[in-house]
Design brief:
- The structure is a single chain.
- By secondary structure, the chain is mainly α.
- Helices cover 61% and strands 5% of the residues.
- It contains 38 helices and 10 strands.
- The strands form 3 sheets. It has a 5-stranded parallel β-sheet, sandwiched between helices. A 3-stranded antiparallel β-sheet has the order 8-10-9.
- The radius of gyration is 33 Å and the shape is elongated.
Length: 850
């Protein structure tokens, strides 16, 4: 122990395994189970890892530098990375591989520089002196002055180069360029391989940097398994609970040091279930304390992540250390340069600020990158990411220095800035239903780019504000983000925010706020197709709204309840709920909300065969929403109007309405809404090309002949579907992608391409099943039966119909279940004479945003 900080050094003898040493010396990273003894090291080189896990790429890159024809002309390679990432293991393994390839004979030398040790680090002249010993120079023949020793070292390397010999020097754990600069060989024949926590960059230093990152998920699990099986070859835990080991690996941030410590904890307690260690590591506040062991049992030789990070942190200048601590106040996975400026300066950069203001912050962030405490991902993006375990460590240090850093004041400033920025962006977009207004608003494209870029941070900030004891900020952020997340199709994020708000409101005890939060959570659950949960929450919100009383809230809940009934094909209940909501909104004079209800009611009326009424309802909805300045919902209503007009046979009016809606939605950046509208347009084109003029209910035929001269419309429909698929892929909407793939399959079948149709339908069915849409999965399975019959595979068609029937039964649709089972039975009884399954009704996919 020195200066209150622990050194971690270890030496391996024979076939012993070194768990971890602080200076990033050899670890058991990559040792595979049952691999046998590692080869012994020549010239002081530590033995190589028996197996190196997940590092094939870096090994090949380093071998390219060490090889004679590396092409880059670099004589120096620097393996840089976070403490505990396995730099030494990689360097030693690569050196052994170079020996096997015969490039250096036995002229490979290893220097332990101890660059991050609190004391005892080897300086540059000391490293040269040590190398002279390795090269066979007796101490008595070593000159006294550093300059003379350096000249002798260079002369010795030159002589070896003239003799045709190549020398490889492995300088492990360098803390600075000064430690290794004099070791750089002047001759192209020789190589210097350095490991460092810093990216060693300096004028005149010719190092090629190879940055080592954490392991992949598979490699991390393999390393953890290897650590166990080397100690206990018959340990049942890797095979018995691989999921728990994968969870442990994630809690360890896939950092080799953390993984080896976790492996040692499991190996040291053979009866400890892997799931229990995973549970212990799940607590962020205690994770670093758990990832710690004492090699001698009395705490004097600690091995752990915190101790390793201590050595890196101690090297940081005070301003960089403070910046690292303050960066943990930014929720989410990364931080933009502007917010780093805010943390350190107390304000966001202003357009009038000199460029030096932001440049100075970037210079500090780049210094932390060179110290392997941050990464910029991607390079040049101005977004800075911290490894999960580094974040936990930096937060601990931040809480220790809270008063010195003015941590609470910085937190308040940061959160207030987020609220201001979110309000400006959301006001610009008009997502709350009000037209954009106010001086100095950014462009719509810029506002949307900011919201999309900072979305993860903003969502996490809702919870961060709650934990920081700022419920006011929690309410403001959630209220601003909710409409944006809902309108732009970020369902999973909306669910996170809504759940957090319900928790905060229940804790506050305010019934009106709680009812509103329950309503918002029900919207998110509806998007996630979790109908039962959404219905239960709406029932609770209705009770609260009626108790308060809050009539508009009651009407909103009724409107959403009607949407749930629509999803469940309970048309009469849906109509009653929407009409009750409409009555309340009209009595209250809330014209905007009246418009949202009319859109939902239009779908119910259309499904009930009242198409003309559906057209009138959607037209009135579009007019009301346009008059109130809500371009977002007005465009969606216009798209629905286009659907209803098409069902009514008013093709030209429908096309005009849809194209106008499409243009508006594109201008607003609504990729998901654009995709749904493209899907609806393509469906109508498909129906029309197939000869279906009955509002899209059934298709007239199933063969290429039925398409007649409609090839062009099939092509146009396919192009629309493919554009929708690309948009859904961009926003990560797997349910939307599944719906479009299923519909595209139907088009391909009607166009006489059944084999392609079947593949598209299978993909769509799998996606819908994965997102929990059982009703949609059933519809696609029934549609696939048509395709299979065309391919003369009636038995498979019958199997699909039975699966569809079971799904219809699971969602309570007894009529469809019975009809589908009858068709399956006909196919099984007499496939040659059984009627072809009927074309299922084309689904309306999606939901109007409340």
């Amino acid at each position: 122990m020195s200066g209150g900080r622990a050194e971690q050094w270890a030496r391996a003898e024979g076939n012993a395994t070194i768990m971890q040493v602080a200076g990033d010396h050899v670890t058991n990273v990559g040792y595979g189970p049952g691999a046998g003894p590692a080869p012994q090291a020549p010239a002081g080189l530590p033995e190589a890892p028996a197996v190196l896990v997940g590092r094939d790429g870096p090994v090949e890159e380093l071998l390219g530098v060490l090889g004679e024809g590396d092409g880059g002309g670099s004589r120096v390679a620097v393996v840089a990375g976070l403490a505990g990432v396995g730099k030494s293991a990689l360097a030693v393994a690569t050196a052994h591989r170079a020996l096997e390839l015969g490039g250096f004979g036995d002229r490979v030398f290893f220097l332990a520089l101890r660059g991050y040790a609190p004391n005892g680090a080897v300086d540059g002249p000391g490293a040269v002196h040590e190398m002279l010993r390795h090269l066979g120079i007796r101490d008595a023949d070593v000159p006294g002055s550093p300059d003379a020793r350096l000249h002798l070292y260079r002369a010795e390397l030159a002589a070896r180069a003239r003799a045709g010999e190549r020398v490889l020097i492995v300088a492990d754990d360098a803390g600075s360029v000064a430690q290794v600069r004099d070791l750089v060989p002047a001759q192209d024949a020789h190589r210097l391989l350095v490991t460092s926590r810093h990216r060693l960059v300096a004028p005149g230093f010719p190092g090629r940097i190879v940055v080592l990152d954490e392991l992949t998920a598979d490699a991390a699990a393999e390393l953890l398994t290897a650590a166990l099986l080397r100690t206990w070859p018959q340990d049942p835990r890797p095979l018995g609970d691989p999921g728990a080991l994968a969870e442990i690996a994630e809690h360890c941030g896939r950092l080799p040091l953390a993984l080896t410590v976790a492996g040692a904890l499991l190996a040291g307690d053979p009866g400890l279930p892997a799931g229990e260690l995973a549970r212990q590591l799940s607590g962020a506040r205690t994770r670093l304390a758990t990832l710690h062991i004492d090699e001698d049992g009395d705490g004097e030789v600690p091995v752990g992540v915190r101790a390793a990070f201590d050595l890196s942190y101690a090297r940081l200048p005070a301003d960089q250390a403070r910046l690292l601590r303050l960066l943990t106040l930014v929720p989410g996975p990364d931080c933009a340069t502007a917010y780093a400026h805010l943390l350190t300066r107390g304000c966001l950069p202003h357009p009038a600020d000199p460029p030096e203001a932001l440049a100075a912050v970037r210079a500090s962030l780049a210094a932390l990158v060179r110290a392997s405490m941050l990464t910029e991902q991607p390079v040049g993006s101005g977004r800075w990411r911290m490894h999960d375990l580094v974040r936990l460590y930096a937060r601990e240090r931040g809480e220790e220095h809270a008063e010195q850093d003015r941590r609470q004041d910085v937190t308040d400033t940061f959160l207030a800035s987020l609220v201001f920025d979110a309000e400006v962006a959301c006001r610009t977009l008009g997502v709350d239903g009000r037209p954009a207004s106010g001086p100095g608003l950014p462009s719509m494209a810029l506002a949307l780019r900011w919201l999309d870029g900072e979305r993860t941070m903003l969502v996490d900030a809702v919870g961060f504000a709650a934990e920081a004891g700022r419920p006011d900020i929690t309410f403001e952020l959630a209220g601003l983000l909710g409409p944006y997340l809902d309108l732009y199709g970020h369902a999973s994020d909306a669910l996170v925010v809504a759940r957090r708000m319900v928790a905060v409101c229940r804790e506050s005890g305010d019934r009106t706020d709680t009812a509103a939060a329950l309503y918002n959570l029900a919207i998110a659950l509806l998007d996630a197709r979790r109908m039962a949960e959404a219905t239960a929450l709406l029932d609770e919100s209705l009770v609260l709204f009626r108790e308060v009383p809050e009539r508009s809230g009651e009407a909103r809940s009724l409107n959403l309840l009607g949407s749930i009934h629509t999803r469940e094909h309970r048309w009469e209940e849906a109509r009653e709920a929407h009409e009750r909501a409409l009555e309340i909104f009209r009595a209250e004079g809330v014209r905007h909300a009246e418009g949202t209800v009319l859109v939902n009611l239009a779908h119910v009326l259309e499904q009930s065969g009242r198409v003309d009424e559906a057209v009138d309802a959607s037209a009135e909805a579009h007019r009301l929403l346009k008059e109130t300045g809500d371009d977002h919902r007005a465009a969606t209503a216009q798209g629905v109007l286009g659907d209803m007009l098409w069902r009514a046979g008013r093709r030209e009016e429908s096309s005009a309405a849809r194209e106008q809606a499409l243009a508006t939605l594109r201008s607003l950046g609504h990729r998901a809404a654009v995709a749904w509208l493209l899907n609806a347009i393509a469906g109508s084109l498909t129906d029309d090309a197939a000869g279906d003029t009955a509002a899209g209910d059934t298709a007239a035929g199933d063969t290429a002949g039925d398409a007649g001269g409609n090839t062009e419309r099939f092509r146009e429909a396919q192009a629309r579907y493919e554009e929708a698929l690309a948009l859904f892929a961009e926003v990560g909407d797997r349910h939307g992608e599944g719906a479009v793939r299923a519909n595209l399959g139907r088009l391909l079948r009607l166009a006489g391409r059944p084999q392609e149709a079947l593949e598209s339908q299978r993909q769509g069915c799998a996606l819908l099943a994965a997102t929990g849409d059982r009703r949609g999965e059933a519809v696609v399975l029934a549609d696939m039966a048509l395709t299979l019959c065309l391919l003369d595979r009636p038995a498979e068609a019958a199997d699909g119909l039975e699966r569809a029937a079971a799904l219809h039964g699971a969602v309570g649709d007894a009529e469809q279940e019975a009809a589908t089972r009858r068709m399956a039975a006909h196919l099984r009884a007499a496939p040659e004479t059984a009627p072809t399954p009927e074309e299922p009704p084309r689904r309306w996919w999606g939901r109007f945003r409340n």
